[in-house]
Design brief:
Shape: globular
Helix content: 25-40%
Oligomer: single chain
Structural class: alpha/beta
Bound molecules: adenosine-5'-triphosphate, pantothenoic acid, potassium ion
Strand content: 15-25%
Radius of gyration: 20 Å
């Protein structure tokens, strides 16, 4: 579990949880200021239920250290829970996970209705809508968000906050995984922080890396070029677990594009912050 600095202050404290397709993304806010972020695996239903019990224990004066050692090895917070429970603002693209979080004592689930973008279609992913809202409200519209997550998505809005639309494709990890799973001879490769492979590769792993990486980058360049043709002053922001790797490749191959990119992991949390303030 990776976390940034946590400061001891609980006034107006709330938790933000984004349930992604691979893992949970957490943030702790004090009012409108983002205090720290961290990622965890999905939590078993029993642990989510236990959070309520831990809260009750905490109110009876038991320390969180004790909860942690006694309760479960899957303690999801990089800090003690006190006072408990912090209100939880939740956005999820995994309905099964949303369901099991309903047992959290003080939860509010964000839906598309909460997001003041125009022209939204009913099945748009809440992660895409929130990231776009967070990016646009922080850096301005028109805005194109590239989310380099499990799926790689493009999601754009014009200067009047109308959804322009976007695209969805398998992310880097998923592309490599599907090659390994659906073929007889290709190995299972994972996303690695490697230098750009040779374009014309002379071994199997590099051939797979070359194919996935260069076509992904060419695709990203093509979408951005088209975005700038439509909206010459449009902004582009990139988030997601593979953002830094993709950024380093873009810097090497397309430096003019890379220099105009806003790279920001917390776009969804900024979107949640704006929405929590406006209600
Ligand atoms: N510790 C990690 N666990 C899982 N994926 C990681 C990790 N570190 C980097 N990644 C990369 O992040 C990508 C997944 O991105 P991310 O975590 O943003 O996806 P996600 O959980 O599906 O979230 P979302 O649904 O919001 O995109 C994977 O392709 C992987 O290469
Ligand atoms: C595309 C993903 C999987 C990206 O996380 C998610 O946003 C989602 O499930 N979206 C629903 C379909 C859509 O956005 O059109
Ligand atoms: K599915």
């Amino acid at each position: 579990m990776k976390s940034q600095h946590y400061s001891e202050q609980t006034e107006g404290t709330w938790l933000a949880l984004e349930i992604g397709n691979s893992r949970l993304h957490w943030a702790l806010f004090h009012g409108k200021s983002l205090n720290c972020t961290w990622d965890t695996e999905y939590l078993p239903e029993s642990v989510i239920q236990q959070l309520g019990d831990w809260g009750a224990e905490e109110q009876r004066g038991r320390g969180a250290e004790e909860q942690r050692s006694r309760g479960s090895s899957i303690y999801p917070f990089p800090f003690p829970l006190s006072p408990f429970p912090f209100p939880l603002l939740l956005a999820s693209v995994v309905p099964q996970q949303t369901a099991i979080w309903q047992s959290y004592p003080n939860v509010r689930v964000i839906t598309l209705e909460d997001i003041p973008l125009n022209n939204i279609y009913p099945t748009l992913g809440i992660d895409r809508a929130l990231a776009l809202w967070g990016a646009g409200m922080s850096w301005g519209f028109p805005m194109l968000v590239i989310d380099a997550g499990t799926a790689l998505t493009f999601t754009a809005a014009d200067g009047d906050k109308n959804l322009v639309g976007g695209a969805i494709l398998p992310g880097m990890g998923l592309q490599l995984a599907s090659l390994g799973q659906k073929t007889g001879q290709l190995p299972q490769l994972e996303v690695e922080e490697i230098q750009l492979p040779p374009r014309f590769a002379l071994n199997t792993p590099q051939a797979m890396q070359s194919g996935v990486i260069y076509t992904l980058l060419a695709g990203i360049k093509d979408f951005i070029d088209e975005w700038w043709r439509l909206f010459p002053d449009g902004k582009v922001a990139m988030k997601g677990g593979d953002r830094n790797l993709l950024l380093s490749y873009l810097q090497e191959l397309y430096p003019a594009i890379a220099s105009r990119l806003i790279v920001e992991p917390n776009l969804i949390f900024w979107g949640m912050q704006k929405i929590s303030m406006s209600r």
